[in-house]
Amino acid sequence: MPGLEFRDLHKSFGAVRALGGVSFAVREGETHACVGENGAGKSTLLKILAGILRPDRGEIVWHGESLRVGSPREALAAGIGMVYQERLFFPNLSVAANIFAGHEIVDRVGRLDERAMRTRAAALLDQLHVPVSPDLRMEHVSPAHIQLVQVARALAFDCHVLVLDEPTDALTDAEAAHLFDVLARLKARGVTILFVSHRLPEVFRLCDRITVLRDGQYVATFDRPDATVDQVVRAMVGREPPDRIPRDRLAAAAGPAISVRGLVRRPRVGGVSFDVMAGEIVGLFGLVGSGRTELLEAMFGLARRDAGSISVHGQPIPPGAPAAAIRAGVALVPEERQRQGLFRNLSLVDNLALPRAALVLRRSIHEREEGDRAAAQMAALSIKAPSLDATPDRLSGGNQQKVVVAKWLGIAPRVLLLDEPTKGVDVGAKYEIHNIIRREAARGMACLMASSDLPEVLALADRILVMRDGRLRGELAGRDADEAQVMRLAAARPEGGC
Description:
498 residues; alpha/beta; Rossmann fold; six-stranded mixed beta sheet; 17 helices
């Protein structure tokens, strides 16, 4: 029987329609996925359920009764627990204080009963198998345990519905597996779970049914045992996925486009050497802490290397000098686009123009010229935006990522470094970014892509370099590699190591 129902939900922000009559049901005690491209309406739906937004029309029903929640506090009181993607918490307070924030336990005279909160928090953490003291300050808690503390907060108020928004974005595979074990136990206890994720393998592993939203509309609900990934992808994007550009052969290369010799960046990178040829896509894979990001940052000059050399087509690049790397033809698409890749207060035209303006040392930007150039760049990469004057925060995550890629392609680099190029983007944008990388490699660009998404590395890379503990532990031909080979190199300990 339906436990939670969304009935004809509508929500608009000015002229922009976020939800246009969404209706579907979640059975009591099931794990139900809600998926869709960025901009599909998932976040708006969750905010209505959490009491952050009110619908323009429609209602939410629980056990046949209309559920009216005007605030997050009311949602929690109604038994709806939310685990947000942003990991909202008070870093200066203890784990126990965070679990009970806003709903503290008090004694008969109204004073905080810290002992009762600590005891209850310890019981919840033990129930979730979280090895964290209730007295530990949240700023010292790992990302995986922060997620589980948020789950504990929901359980502290006997939630009937647990909603998780992209819960594994910052987790390792082992941490995600622990979270899934926790969710399986909660489901066995009768908790209804609404799971929102871009990661379809997780959805198919965890969920009983999958609901797809597209452009603010309900599209379909699939029973997971009868559905395929391709069916869900087609429903999400409303079209067949973009054709993959074939990689039958590498572009001819006279020699390495970029050479790294003995690169050291303490304490994360220790003596790394390799080449990337023109027209080649090299995948750089490693588990969290392997040193992938630190290696790319040292190559680009964001961090000063302690030893070693880097050269582009035989021309040495001085350490700690991003400007010199850019002039030599090296560009970096960073892992954190919001913090490192975009100026959120500037227009798309300005974001796209700045790398080129810095390269030619312009003191000003010619608006008409750069506007025409920006329009051409956005068309070439199929970037969807309200206007050229829009700021990046008005774009979906996938379109923001394509803006970061486009601004560097605008200076025609010879070497493109990419750190988690499809992190947090929907499946349609992921395919498009993959094809952009393939296209640029086919034109002769050397591409070095660091990713924790092993299927992505296997799908794209001509060669795969595997890092562990700051060193390269092996190299595999992309055509012949499989997941077991790569993971064996990434996870095994060196002989005689600890």
